[in-house]
Amino acid sequence: MKSLASDNYAGAITEVMQALLHENQDHAVAYGNDKTTERLKDELRLLINYQFKLHLVFNGTGANLLALSLLTKPYDAILCAETAHIYVDESTAPEGLTGCRLIPLPIDETGKLTPATIQRAVKRRGDLHHPQIKVLSITQPTEYGTLYTLDELRGIHRVANENDLLIHMDGSRLFTAITALNCTLQDVVQASGVDALSLGGTKSGMLYGEAVLVFNEHIHDSPFFHKRSMQLASKSRFISAQFLALLNHDTYRKYANIVLERTQQLATVLRKYPQIIITKPVEVNAIFAKIPPNWIKPLQETLFFYLWDEHMHEVRLMCSFDTSEEEISLFDRKLAELTR
């Protein structure tokens, strides 16, 4: 049974499965020293047109922790949104591995950080009694499924530069974001001035695997941190093969366009019912909405989703690359039944 819970619930796209079968036909050198991983590096360099170091990891938390550990020392602090995955959904792992303090910042009504908010948070530089603010972590798209425009990213980059902050980007759904913005990876890297990027693959149709792209040229010891993080896969080529399947002929855009279309179809269905209030702009594949509390359980039994804020009766509905029009129609019929 499918759901509207998370794109993590979905399986893998056909192209990824085919790529894995093809990669499985022969032996190759381990730990990322293989030809498939070299091809991935070459492909990403062509797309981004920047120099970087590539480290492949198993999961999103591992990507974020490796990226942040490269940018910080144990007495530093990391600024992030109060809703950031590293603050809300990665337990104590970020602080435990990096030794740093996470400082959550208030977001605006669309879930974004603003340059003014970031500026106000930078304080007590040089005070040994206070964690030293070193890194700004942003999420694209945000945890509310909204998008920073390229101009907004440039504004954040400017305030970070003015305050000597390094930038980490959690891009677990970045392929969907750049499709929605009709821009490229290079556009986002250039606009944000990102020092270390967590680039997601799992939520875009891979079985597993993420990538950390390190753009900061002053970081030379990232391979040692990669090993220390316990995220260095001996058979890294199977992660590389999946990423290549996404990048080949812009396959990620094909599936991102499907998920964006389905999400807008679902939003149109929800807007038919005055009892439902969509609470955030619908810009990628997440919909946040207030639903009558007595509707939540029967709707979850039809297509499961998460209750986001139980006090507000706000839920999150998330489409995946394999969400079908038939499933959206099923949800619509259940809503119609509940209104009778």
UniProtKB/TrEMBL annotation:
Gene3D superfamilies noted in UniProt: Aspartate Aminotransferase, domain 1, Type I PLP-dependent aspartate aminotransferase-like (Major domain)
Family annotation (InterPro entries): ArAA_b-elim_lyase/Thr_aldolase (IPR001597), PyrdxlP-dep_Trfase (IPR015424), PyrdxlP-dep_Trfase_major (IPR015421), PyrdxlP-dep_Trfase_small (IPR015422)
Record flagged with keyword ATP-binding: no
A Pfam cross-reference name: Beta_elim_lyase
Originating species: Sphingobacterium sp. (strain 21)
SUPFAM superfamilies documented for this protein: PLP-dependent transferases
The protein's Enzyme Commission number: 4.1.2.5
Cofactor: pyridoxal 5'-phosphate
Ranges for domain Aromatic amino acid beta-eliminating lyase/threonine aldolase: 4-289
Family membership: Belongs to the threonine aldolase family.
Protein name stated in the entry: Threonine aldolase
Enzyme class: lyase
GO terms for MF: threonine aldolase activity
